[in-house]
Predict the 3D structure of the following.
Amino acid sequence: MKELPDELAAKIVNAVLEERCASEEGMRRYRPLLEERAHRIIARLVVDSGEDSGSNNDLPVQIHALLNLADTTVKDELNSHRYPKPACPDNGGCAMCCTHMRIVLSVQEAAVIARELLGLTEPEKAQIAHRLPSLGKSGPGSRCGLLDEQGLCTLYAARPINCRTYRSCSITACEDRVRLGRNAGEEVVFTYPFDDLVRKSFHHMVQPGGTPHFLEMNTFLASVLHDDEGLAAWASGEIPAEDDA
């Protein structure tokens, strides 16, 4: 049975609060803020986009369109003047997250990345492969393989929802998190809880009623950059079974 918007909004708000708030006080503090925005975001990302979901059976195209809609939703929220001005550059250029955070993406987003990789030349794909860390995974002290030598994303237009929605209102807070540990500056970075609403609404659309299966970005890149057949399969939307992904 299809969930009603109100039921879905309540479920997503509860999920965000459980992940973000360690205390009952924190939940009480942020619940009204989240509930106010949840209905608007879900109406836009789930209800409105769902009306056209059957118009294109090309999975990467569908997911890319939904990512672009998420971009617009985030931009409109930030322009509503409900939030402090984010420190993140509007068009990219800050690589703090790309060099110190574990970059994950859903298997559906991986199909979008694969479609873009398929369009690159062999030398361009070789450059990405060369940048992959020796241990394969991103995280503290590592870099996302899509980050070029100038600190810009090679596939910025196809970047996953996490990269599109994460916002910080303080560069100092981000630096403290890297220097002192992941919880440093948490309250400053958490000024934008609506980002979580966008992410969870997006994942509901790509896998309704289920738990998204996530991949680590560099691990995924390493698995397809030297496998032309596998890359073509991913790019066509042929997502492997969870045990094989």
The two ends are 28 Å apart (CA to CA).
